[in-house]
Amino acid sequence: MYALALSLAAAALLPVVLADPNAAVDPPRLYHRLFDPAASGAPWAERGTLALPGPGSAPSASAHLVPADTLEADLAHFAQTLRSPDAAGALYQLALARPGAADPAHWHVSAVKASTSEDIRVHLAADGTPYALDYFVAPVPRDGACPKRRRKDSKGETAPPLRHVSNTTVSLVHPRHPPLPQLRVPPPLALDGKPVEPVPEKTFLQKYWIYMAVALFALRYVRVSFCVPLGFWARDVWLCGYVPRFLPRWESTDR
Known about the structure:
Layout: H1 2-18, E1 29-35, E2 45-51, E3 64-67, H2 71-82, E4 91-96, E5 108-112, E6 117-124, E7 130-138, E8 167-173, H3 204-221, E9 225-229, E10 237-242, E11 249-254
Parallel strand pairs: 6-8
Antiparallel strand pairs: 1-2, 1-4, 2-3, 4-5, 6-7, 9-10, 10-11
Protein name: ER membrane protein complex subunit 10
Organism: Rhodonia placenta
Keywords: Signal
C-alpha cells in the first residue's frame, strides 16, 4: 500500500521536474568534416559549441564559439587527407545540429573550399532558438564569386598546407519584421452611407472679387491729374489730363 502511494507521488512530481525552467539547456553544437562528392560520406566531428546570449538579452549581445577538445587533431587529420591526389574535390563542411535531431540529414550544412578566416552567422528565431547557419570564409567573396587568381612567382610553388583559421567571428542575426504598408485613409461617409463629396475649390474671381471691386470703385470716383511734355523738340507743348472712369481725357495747352 505504501509502495503504491510513493509511486503515485513520484508520478505526480515528474511533470514538475521536467518543466523546471532552471534546467540546463544543451547549447547549439557545430560539426565539421571533409566531404568528397566522389567518395562515401565521411563521419562528422564536433567543431565546438555556440555560446549564445539569453532570450531576454539585447540584440547587440555578442556570441562566441567554444572549440572542441579534438579540434586540432581533426584539422591535422583533414590536412593529411588533403595531401592525397584523390581528395582534390573535397569540401570542408560545417553543420549546425538542430535541437533534438540526431540524424545529420536534418542538419543545416554549409560547404566551402578553403579559408584563412571565417564568419559564422547564426539566425535566431523569435524565442532565441538558432534555426539556420550562414558560413562565409576569406578570401572567397560574400557574393559567391570566384576569388581573383594571383600570378605564380616561382615554378615550384605549392599550395599552403591546411591549418586552423586565424580569425573566427560569430554573429547573430535576429528576426526582422518588414515595414507595414501605408494604407490610404478611406473617405468619410455621410448618414446615407455615401462618400462625402469634398468642397469644390473657389475660382480666382470668387477668391479676389472684393479686391477687384475696391479697385474699380477707386478708379471710378478718384481723378488723377497729370501733365507731361510731348517730347524733346516740343518742350512748350504739354499734355494734361486726368483719369476718370478708366478713360483719360486729354487736353492740349500751350505753355
